[in-house]
Amino acid sequence: MVADAAKKDKPEEKKGKNAKDEKKDEMSDEDKKLEEDLNMLVKRLGEPDTSLYKPSLESMRTLIRASTTSMTSVPKPLKFMRPHYTTMKHIHEKIADPAIQKECANLISVLAMTSDEPIDCIIYRLKGTQEPVGDWGHEYVRHLAMELSEEWKKTADGTEAHKKTREQLLILARDIVVHHMKHNAEVEACDLLIEIERLDLLISFVDEADHQRVCLYLLSCAPLTPDPDNIILIRTAKDLHLKFNKYLEAVRCAIMLNDTDEIKRIFKLTTDSLLQMQMAILLGRHQIFLDFEGAENGEKLGALNANTSLFEYFHSLGRELDIMEPKTPEGIYKSHLEASRPFGSTSAPDSARMNLAAAFVNGFVNCGFGVDKMMAEQEDANRWFYKNKEYGMFSAAASQGLVWRWDIDSGLAQCDRFLYVNDDFIKAGTLLAIGIISSGIQDPCDPASAILLDHVHSDRSVMRVGSVFGLGLAYANSKRETVIKKEEGGVIHELRKVITDTRTPSPITAEVRGLAALSLGLILVGTADHDVANEMVTSLMEKSEIELADPNMRFYALGVALIFLGTQEKAEVTVELVKCIAEPFGSMFATLVDVCAYAGTGNVLKIQGLLHLCSEHYETKEDKKSKHKDDPKSISKTKSSEVSVSTTSSASVSATSTPTTTPAKRSKKEATKAEKTGGKVDLSSQQAVAVLGIGLIAMGDEVGSQMALRMFGHLIRYGEAVIRRAVPLAMALLSVSNPQLNILETLSKFSHDADPSTAHSSIFALGLVGAGTNNARLVAMLRQLASFHHKDQMSLMLVRLSQGLTHLAKGTMTLNPWHSDRQMLCPSALAGILTVCYAFLDANNSIMNNKQHYLLYSLVLAMQPRMLTTLVEDEKKQLKQVNVTVRVGQAVDVVAQAGRPKTITGFQTHKTPVLLAYGERAELASEEYLSMTPYLEGLVILKKNPNYEAPLVSKPKA
């Protein structure tokens, strides 16, 4: 049988060979003649008669250039010349005439595209006549660019020979960039200059028609590039915008760089008053407040930058949508629609928790509208406050700050009536409400510091809590001199005094110290202020292990981490410094600072390091006891294995951890203590922060977010309990105010989890994901959860909070920290969301301990209207609202696309003001007005188009 099969196969082999020969024979007469001509020309070059060299090379050049080819095949002349490649190199060496030798080098450089030699193409190009780089076609230019970047890396050592080579390569790089720019290949030009780290050359080659595409590409590459290269990309984009007088786009780049001095410089360069106003609005949205005293139109610019009129435009939106009527918590819960429970408990729910939830929900739902039904009258408000106890009253009083959000004049008048009551908790809550009202607003009178600073050093702890946390919210991300000055009387100076108080016994509680540290972090967010950070770290180093175990100490760590939010490499010194603090606090602290430093960057290496941390297993003595409680046989095994575990624990941690997350070396005393407790130090808190960090870093990149979601799926199934509890919060960070179906389904599943902490995290995460969207599917899910958790009052309270967040400002606000077409990350907004998620990592000791639920008000920093309101300047040079037609649709990624592609799809036409959902983009529907900003979000200033001609309206026939 085998022999027969072999016999059958032989004819087939012959047939195959014959097919190849036949294919070769099938060459056309034209191809055969071309091959013969090329062979003859190569033969002539090998002959001793030098007079034949030049005409032979010219003929060969003509034949190669005359060939036509498709994108999928090698040109025929190059295919026929490929066997002669080595011969041509030998011929080049033998030619004595320099001019003819250069001609030959040109041809070899082109032939090198088909060879296996790595950089022959560029070597012989440099030996050639330096003819225009595009003469041999785009494929040849692409090969040169690819080999140029490789050769550039090899010449990095700086020797004299390599310096000369680099000079030649730089000349070639300029030629390639010029060619790309002429042929609409700006992306390839940018890629080449990024590879050789000479983006500064780009500015001289870009013209006005192409600069928008180039800048868009550079800014889209920045999140995918490591520090400091990403800074170079953004700075190059800024310089390009300035070259063509695109000042608003340049300011956006300066904001991304967090460079306040550059922002001021660009402001002075701008002469158009309307453009200056639009810049002021953009800076106010990002909560960067500048001093416009002495500037032309300084009063107008200051008002727009300070967001003092934001509540008026928001109320106008509410009237347009007819949603000014206040809503009650019960109107949101719709308890009558919840599934009936015939076999459930008929007892009334715990009124304290439900009243507390109602206070938050009332604030969330009526946020910014200035009207509600619970605190409209003094008597109603008092009755409402006294339904709660102590810190419940504190949070209920603070909720009035949400209702009067941004409206300082009316809000302070309403709060003033509660500053003189006899109950300290109501007074303290009112102080926090003043901080909430003032958040993101720069009032010339600065009422927040005037009122709150008086109570920072109060004898009553609760008054300190309200004033200290209120100051943090009121001045978050504030770059104002009056706030950041560290001399006597400044807000930061007073908060630092709270932290550094060394009196014994100290009248300042750990809770107040933790909040002071957190407030400093919020005020100095993203500034990398090493002085304040080192002061806070030093105070932590002086504390004992027992003091560090206090849950409030975790907010010290968060405060320092927020100072370095998004600063990347600037945080490295502090990361190393905090590792000296006793374990497990030190490792958790170092990881927290590290993840905050790279927040929103999408840094893949950091995420890999964090995933590695999550793969570690830290088994404490309590875990072992519970594991072997019912198994007496395993006790002896455990005792024998404890010795081996203890001897290998420190080695395994140091060997498997990345440099950025390696725990600090412990003293001999700590190591002995770890051995006695049965092995490794419990670093589970570090793992929880690492999980949160994955979401925090990946949120800046859509592809990274999708990959992180897949990782979370594995972590929540196979990870330790502390990891499973953190995963829902990390998922919420990836998709704040963007209820994607797959995330909703996952969180809904784990909101029924047997572990209460995992269920609690998942329920609250649902609220963050759906915040301000009125998502119908999510509303139905939460209603079902309310029925499921009707016996568990803690879970039911969280369900109510999530319902309130979903209906945030009746569906007109968002918590998403990204703005300006999802390209800019607001540091204070991210800090507010991170604070709440971080608190939920140990919710039983913070938000759900009947005391620190006021930390939920950190979300105020992220609350922004998701509206588009258009403004024009009237005859009196005042901005007034105007209704224009706009198209609103799903945003389309147009980065590196040729021509003028459509930026939105599936659009609908509306009249402003309109609401913009996540991922939506707007554009003007007519050419009657010109926009001062290419990104139609928030408040947009328009001006009349001088070239606009109204369409002729035909008169109806009689």
UniProtKB/TrEMBL annotation:
Region forming the signal peptide: none
Bias (Basic and acidic residues): 621-634, 669-679
InterPro entries reported in the protein's UniProt record: 26S_Psome_Rpn1, ARM-like, ARM-type_fold, Proteasome/cyclosome_rpt, RPN1_C, RPN1_N
GO BP terms in the entry: nematode larval development; proteasome-mediated ubiquitin-dependent protein catabolic process; regulation of protein catabolic process
GO-annotated molecular function: enzyme regulator activity
Biased composition (Low complexity): 635-664
Gene3D superfamilies named among the record's database cross-references: Leucine-rich Repeat Variant (1.25.10.10)
Keywords: Proteasome, Repeat
GO cellular component: nucleus; proteasome regulatory particle, base subcomplex; proteasome storage granule
SUPFAM superfamilies the record matches: ARM repeat
Domain of life: Eukaryota
Region (Disordered): 1-35, 621-679
Keyword Methyltransferase: no
Pfam families with a match to the protein in the record: PC_rep, RPN1_C, RPN1_RPN2_N
Family under the similarity heading: Belongs to the proteasome subunit S2 family.
Quaternary context: Component of the 19S proteasome regulatory particle complex. The 26S proteasome consists of a 20S core particle (CP) and two 19S regulatory subunits (RP). The regulatory particle is made of a lid composed of 9 subunits, a base containing 6 ATPases and few additional components including PSMD2. Interacts with RPGRIP1L. Interacts with CRY1 in a KDM8-dependent manner.
Known function: Component of the 26S proteasome, a multiprotein complex involved in the ATP-dependent degradation of ubiquitinated proteins. This complex plays a key role in the maintenance of protein homeostasis by removing misfolded or damaged proteins, which could impair cellular functions, and by removing proteins whose functions are no longer required. Therefore, the proteasome participates in numerous cellular processes, including cell cycle progression, apoptosis, or DNA damage repair. Binds to the intracellular domain of tumor necrosis factor type 1 receptor. The binding domain of TRAP1 and TRAP2 resides outside the death domain of TNFR1.
Protein name: 26S proteasome non-ATPase regulatory subunit 2
This protein's encoding gene: WBGene00098470
